[in-house]
Amino acid sequence: MDEIWIVVGVLGALILGFVGGMVFGPESADTAGLAKDLEALQARVQSLEEKVATLPTAPGSPSLKIGVVDAETLFTRVFLPQVATERSALQAKARAIQDLQAKYAQGQIEADAYQHQYAKLQAEYLQAQVQVNMSMLDKMIASPGFADLRGDLQQLKDQAKPLADQVDALAKQVQVTILDYTTFFNQLQQLQSAFQQVDQLLTQVAATKILEISQQVAQEQGYDIVLRTKDVVMYQRAPAISDLSSEVEKRLRNLFPAK
Predict the structure, then answer these.
(1) Rounded (10°) angle between helices 32-53 and 181-220
(2) Which of 6, 67, 208, 239 is 20 to 30 Å apart from 31, CA to CA?
(3) Mind listing the pLDDT tens digit for each residue in 218-246?
(4) Per-position DSSP letters for the chain, written without gaps between them
């Protein structure tokens, strides 16, 4: 039997992303190059899944060597720490917004003052989101482990930079005054949607690397199937199934060598 190995359900599974929120698909700059690469990899996964479905199960058939990988934990342990400082600043802005809302609900701040302060904090919150994404882009572009996607990542950065400049301009504008809150928040929402797509693409790139390295480990160690643990493995009989997460994590960390 030919060796068959697969990680089920990694792509699209890391829904929280780098900024910690759900991601959507707004209209924004063209990211077709990166999306095409990811779609090709997803097609490869589907092809392997179809091969797995045809594996022999009759009595006497050769036993399968099966492994599992915890993709969600790997994303949290390897990728999120790369932007820990930026994420901390983002969380601080989120807390500031919550504090402001609480004060307004308790009648500690007038409506006009609340509206302007809320707009200011929302702009700063989006700035913090942008910093998370742009920092992660820079780290991926600089890493030799992402050389196969570097051109697409650089193109994504080039397209995101003018949008980041627009966010900065809105944040500066709100420091002074806002003549039309409706227009301001509409612009802010459009930019937020654009960076939600950037965050989604970066999360998919991370998922791609988890899948790629999981496949490398599986191939080298002779595994037939590798499953994603979350929502897939409901029961396992040790040592029939082996957890490959630690080996995959070690290799993923090499994508971002310590300075």
Answers:
(1) 40
(2) 6
(3) 999 998 888 877 545 545 555 567 889 99
(4) ------EET-TTT-TTTTTTS-----S-S--HHHHHHHHHHHHHHHHHHHHHHTS--STTPPPP-EEEE-HHHHIIIIIGGGGHHHHHHHHHHHHHHHHHHHHHHTT-S-HHHHHHHHHHHHHHHHHHHHHHHHHHHHHHHH-GGGGGGHHHHHHHHHHHHHHHHHHHHHHHHHHH--S-HHHHHHHHHHHHHHHHHHHHHHHHHHHHHHHHHHHHHHHHTT-SEEEESTTT-S---TTSEEE-HHHHHHHHHTTS---
